[in-house]
Amino acid sequence: MKRTAAMLGLILLCLALLDTGVAVVLHWAEAQGRMGSLVRYFDYGRSVPGKLARWEADPDAPGSLYNVAWRPDALAVSAAGFADEATDTGPVIRSYGMSFVNDIIAAARDQDPDLLWDNLAGPGAPPNFTYALFQEDRANRRRGDIAVLGILSSSVPAMAALSSRSWVFEQPAPYTYPIFQPEEDGLKRIEPLVTSVAQEHALASDPAQARAWADQLAERDAFYSPITFGAVWLDASPLARLVRRSLGTAHVSQTKADILAGSGYPYVEVLDRMIVDFARTARADGQIPIVVLVQTRNPVNVDVLTVARPGLERANVAYLATAEHFDPTDISGFVSDGHYTSEVNARFGTVFLALVEAAQTQR
Amino acid sequence: MLFTQLNFWLFFAIVSALYVLLPHKAQNRMLLVASYIFYGAWDWRFLSLILLSTFIDYAVGLRMATATRQDKRKQLLWISLAVNLGMLGIFKYLGFFLDSFQELLTWAGYTADPFTLSIVLPVGISFYTFQTLSYTIDIYRRELKPCHDFLDFALFVAFFPQLVAGPIERAKNLLPNISAPRILSWDALGRGAVLCLLGLIKKVVIADAIAPSVDAIYASPDPTRWDVILATWLFAIQIYCDFSGYTDIARGVAKMLGFRLMRNFAQPYFAVDPQEFWRRWHISLSTWLRDYLYISLGGNRGGPWKTYRNLMATMALGGLWHGAAWNFVLWGLYQGGLLSIHRALAGTHKRSGEGAQRSAMAWVRRILMIAVFFQAVCYGWLLFRATSFAQIVDFTGRLFTGPPGLTIPTIPAAAYLGMVVLLVWDVLIERTGNVRFYQTWPMVIRAGIYAGMIYLLAFGATTATSAFIYFQF
Q1: Which of the four pLDDT bands, split at 50, 70 and 90, describes residue B464?
Q2: Do both A9 and A56 map to the same domain?
Q3: A:320-349 residues touching chain B, CB 8 A cutoff
Q4: Residue in A101, A119, A122, A120 with CA at minimum distance from that of residue A167
Q5: Who contacts A68 (Cβ-Cβ below 8 Å, separation ≥6)?
Q6: Do A287 and A358 sit in the same domain of this protein?
Q7: Could you please report the per-residue DSSP string of A328-345?
Q8: Which of A6, A15, A130, B180 is most buried, by CB atoms within 10 Å?
């Protein structure tokens, strides 16, 4: 008994010494500006508020996504660009997506430099972000334009989230978006309490609003969890960060799997209604709707074409499904960060160009 | 409920707390209930199969012990074999054989109405059926007395640490451990905890981290030559860490409760020939196959050709035990082939195995032989991991003529660190011949090592949710 207790005490002491040593080394490396992959590895496990606080203090820090993809900013840029545009240029492609969709259209433009293109995008943006932007950017499109709605397979479960901070635990971009729920024949928008980076900043000096926002996340966002948002003080310990990282990523994966298994959020129905409404709205405004379905190689994933197909067929909308042109299980088509290689994007770009041409001919 | 999930450790904490408070017989009853809860958490419907196996083998054991006529004893043994192997046949192999029969008819030019069976494979069925079979066969051979306490016997069948993936315990080892009061000691608790920690590192830090890279290559339609080689090497490490990690945790958990489960792995990749490999890999299965199948078929008693036939049959069935697919049979035949070739050559070449003198040259020679034999083992793993016969042919071709380059996804730094730690650990066991080599070291050093292992586990743990590979068997 005595020996066991002594051993336990010694193990705890060694752990504390080891943890302190690692913390000192990481702190020194950071102070020297040596943000190597090892430092980042430990940083991935900070609590979400901890990561956001560090990014807020230094928005230009490597990997910071603090100022990225806030909808009011994106819409202001879009409006300014639209106001400066000549009106007789011919159709402009207006895409609402993420880097995957941007890569495809950029590859198409490489093949046809005359293509006019404007995009609004967020990192790993879920369909509720792209669809919300499509709705809000309505004034910044003209008749004859081509509206592109991007849907990323790995982000489909995030339709039950209000912000990327809750479901991208390792790099929680704080930008927000509404959650859509089926209501009668359409969709009901549930707006997040925080919609702009200014409001995000103001939370620090407005505890009541911060609490209300946390309450809304806890109530509405399927991914919100004390594991990822609580006990910020534990961020001081690298060991605690490692443990949080493990638990946090497991929590996010499990929540995604639960959503895809059909428990909690009706993502199939909502996605279907989004596609139908997207096509109807674009056509009502005299625009050509195109849906781009990107199948990624993430482990927790949905077959996005299968899920979207009923809506695509009902709306009779043109679409590009990457899985129809490249097998997403073939790892030779991906670069290390999970994006498609330029060769594969060029293939998608060719298909996209043909789609645009066909859609314009049919008009 | 996986060993790598928090809910298992919560479950184990509750079981342990109750365990220390109860007297011996009550401990056994509580462990039986806990074992059924543990299994029921996978799928409660299949508890009925465990119960059926338990009732039949308990009754058969008692009747066999009192039966004096040999034909009556044989009849009883056949009942046990029919029930256990029948269950295994229906739930594990029926769909496979029907599919194969259908394909054969189609190949022969007959049109068969398509039919499919959707039978769910009960977790661990191959393990507990073999375990209970060893009980009745041992009684039949008069090597074991039957267990008279039904609930103790039920615990022998369903003991949760080893229920779903072994080790496949023998009744003569585990039943006395159940029947007699167990001594709980701080020393056993500590050793059990170290085994659990080592098992978790193997599974979480190494096997789970390697799995995505292996899966990516085995799902890729056009891997390069080095992709196939690296993925197969990595799969060799993955399956060892996955399965021996499970066994370590099972043994550790049992040890903390005062049970002694058999060792299932003894540094198998340090083997220099197939015979040595099978003395080190999945020992509880290989000894089961030897004692109840190979010897029953005649072993090496009928001359060389019958010996080779028995080896091939035993290993083919051993392969089929792993899963209802032809690639497992092929893997078994490959292992049988290696054993037969080794047996044929062993007469003309002096063995260089474990007993050889360990001079410097002998060590170099042994290391070279380990490296060469490892490649033979790895080709077996390619057969084992492949998803179809076409992939076996394709990947085998790519080993020699595949395109250049490397597209396999990188594995995390923690996995490399884990592999180094595991290699050092296994080398130390191999060199000292003592699995508890660390116990002679000063306390402070040991505490530092345990702390480092805990840190490594946290470092490598990301999403430890993958099921253990051997659960499907």
Answers
A1: very low
A2: no
A3: 327, 329-332, 336
A4: A122
A5: A122, A123, A173, A175
A6: yes
A7: TT-GGGB-TTSPBPHHHH
A8: A130
| Number of domain units in chain A | 2
Name the burial class of residue A21, with classes exposed (0-12), middle (13-18) and buried (19+) by CB atoms within 10 angstroms of its CB: exposed
A204 touches chain B (CB under 8 A): no
- ipTM score of complex: 0.72
Q: Is beta strand A288-294 parallel, antiparallel or unpaired with respect to A146-152?
A: parallel
A24/A149 same-domain check: no
CATH number, domain containing residue A44: 3.40.50.1110
Q: Is B407's CB within 8 Å of A332's CB?
A: yes
Residues of A in contact with B186 (CB under 8 A): 1, 3-4
Strands (DSSP E) along B179-272, which ranges? none
> Count of residues for chain B?
473
If asked whether residues A27 and A57 sit together in one domain, one would say: no
Mark yes or no for CB contact B462/A249 under 8 Å: yes
Residues of B within 8 A of A4 (CB-CB) are 186, 189-190
Q: pLDDT (tens digit, 9 = 90+) per residue, B262-300?
A: 999 999 999 999 999 999 999 999 999 999 999 888 888
In terms of domains, do A91 and A227 share one?
A: yes
Q: Does A41 lie in the same domain as A25?
A: no
Type of residue at A303: D
Q: B33-82 pLDDT, tens per residue?
A: 999 999 998 888 888 889 999 999 999 999 998 888 888 999 999 999 99
Amino acid at A9: G
Q: Would the CB atoms of A11 and B450 count as touching at under 8 Å?
A: yes
Distance CA B295, CA A23 (A): 60
Q: Which of A14, A241, A343 to mutate to test the interface with B (most CBs of B within 10 A)?
A: A14
pLDDT value of residue A347: 96
Nearest to B444 among A4, A10, A299 (CB): A10
Q: Quick one: A15 and A120 in the same domain?
A: no
Q: Do A18 and B464 touch (CB under 8 A)?
A: no
Q: pLDDT: is A24 or A34 the higher one? A: A24
Is the CB of A3 less than 8 angstroms away from the CB of B186? Answer: yes
Nearest to A330 among B212, B222, B450 (CB): B222
Whether residues A354 and A298 fall in one domain: yes
> What residues make up the domain containing A3?
1-32
The answer to whether residue A253 neighbours chain B at the CB level (below 8 Å) is yes
pLDDT band at residue B403 using 50, 70 and 90 as cut-offs = confident
Distances A6 to A11, A111, B192, B452 between C-alpha atoms, Å: 9, 71, 17, 17
